[in-house]
Amino acid sequence: MTEVNLGLDFGATGLRAAYSVSGRPTGFMALTGVDRPWLLCVPATAGPVPVAFPSLKSMLGENTRIDVAGQPLRPVEIVARALAQLCRRVLDTTSGTIGQVVISVPARFGTTQRTALLEAAETAGLTRVSLISDSVAAVIGHTGGEGSGTYLSYGMGYDGFELGLVRVVRGRYRVLGYEGARTPGGRFLDSHVLGSWLHALRPQGLTPGEVEHGEAGWLRLRAVAEQIKETLSAGDRALFPVLMAGPDNQQPVTMEIERQSFATLVRLVVAPTLDRADHLFDQSGMRREDVDTVVLSGGSTRLPELRGLISGLGTAVVPSGNEHIARGAALHANRLSGRSPGYEEQLGADTRDTAEPQMQPPPLNITLLTAPGTTTPATASHRPAGLDAARRLIEEGRLDQAGKELRQLIAEAQALLDDISTATPGTGDDTPAAARPPRDGTPVTTPPAGDGEPAPPPGQGPSGVAHLLTRARRLIAQEQYQQAIGMAHLAWQREPDRPDVFEEMIDLHCTAATAAPAVETFTRDEEWLRCALGHDPNNARIRALLAERSYTQGRELSRLGRRAEAMKVLEQTLKWDPDHRPARDLLHTLGRSRGA
Question: Which of 115, 525, 545, 559 is the most exposed place for a label (fewest CB within 10 A)?
Answer without folding.
Answer: 559
